[in-house]
Amino acid sequence: MSFSDLFDSGFKKRNEDHFAAIVRVAMNDGVISADEKAFLDRLATNLDISEQDYKIILKDYQSHPINPPVEYDKRLERLYDLVRMVHVDQIKGDPEHKLLNKIGVGLGFHAVNVKYIVDKALTLVNNGVDLDTFIHEIKHMNQ
What we know:
Blueprint: H1 3-26, H2 34-46, H3 51-59, H4 72-88, H5 94-106, H6 114-126, H7 131-139
Helix pairs in contact: 1-2, 1-5, 4-5, 4-6, 4-7, 5-6
């Protein structure tokens, strides 16, 4: 096995675990809404999750560990990517906030602060900021 094969399999596994964690968050209330399903479909494509793996994960999402990034910057990177996907998909209003709040908690943001963080994240993405600006602004929003 070559070094690139190891990297590719690790990258694929991380994407699958990340996707499964988001499925778990979506299933938190026992139902995947139509908006959540549409988002999961697009997310699977963006994370290069095969149709077969998608079905397996949906059926057995609890077998994948939830591993939110330990590093705050990595959590912000994932939040940035997810908020951009939701923004591009034009999921607006209450469904957008509800979905992102659930995902934010799943990423490891504290439930007390997640609404504030998501609102700020949506504003920043709507304003077209890059990742570095996004991270800087979120980190310094309480200062």
